[in-house]
Each structure stands twice: as C-alpha cells, then as structure tokens.
Design brief:
Blueprint (H helix, E strand, L loop, with lengths): L6 E8 L4 E2 L4 E8 L2 E9 L5 E2 L5 E2 L11 E6 L1 H9 L8 E6 L8 E9 L2 E4 L4
Parallel strand pairs: 1-9
Antiparallel strand pairs: 1-2, 1-5, 3-4, 3-7, 4-6, 7-8, 9-10
Amino acid sequence: MTDQIYTVSCHILNSHEGKPLEKITCELHELGLDGSYNLASQETDKDGRVGKDLWKIKKEKFVLSAGKTYMIRFQTKKCYYDIIKENTLYPYIDIPFLIAENDSRTHYHIPLLLNNFGYTTYRGS
C-alpha cells in the first residue's frame, strides 16, 4: 500500500425530476472482513452534494487507503420519500467502491441518480 491520501465526495439527483436532493443523510463506511465501520456522515447541500472536506468524522481520525473497500449509504426513504409522501422500493441505497492499489486518481466521486423504483451510479470526477 502507498502513503497516498485519497478523498471522497458524493452527489444525489432525482432523475425523474432532474433536480438535486438536499438534506439526504450520507454515511461513509469502511467495509472489512469483520464488518462495517461508520467513518463519517453528512447531509447533502442544496446542490445535492457532500464535498470531500465536509464529512462529519465519526472516528477520531481516519484515512482512506488503497486496497480497501468503502461504501456510501444514502438514506433516501427517511430523508426524502417519507417527507414527500411517496413510495419507493429502496429504504436506503448502499454504493460500495474499491480504492484500487494501482489507481493514480486520488479523488473518488460517487454520484447517485435516483427515482422511486430505480437508481444508477458511476465513477464521477
């Protein structure tokens, strides 16, 4: 493993309405063989984003490392669909991602395009 510093941000858009979703709780977890560790959380801003420097840290200190798997949990039902009183298939959406040993990119952006009964994601920039 390297001593490289990695960062992560995320973004959520309602693809049905074409608008960002504000105040969605996003939780950053590290996934390991012995379970999941909640590292940080934050609500999305008015543009539906959590910037790389805006996470509220749960642990005293953590560093994202190459060769490890992380996950962002988007709390879609309780933070959005319950409020607007619409049904959804997904109470939350987990998007796991791997920081590869040989990846020269140091920033990971995890976008979520959401509608009531489906979603998609991709490697953002």
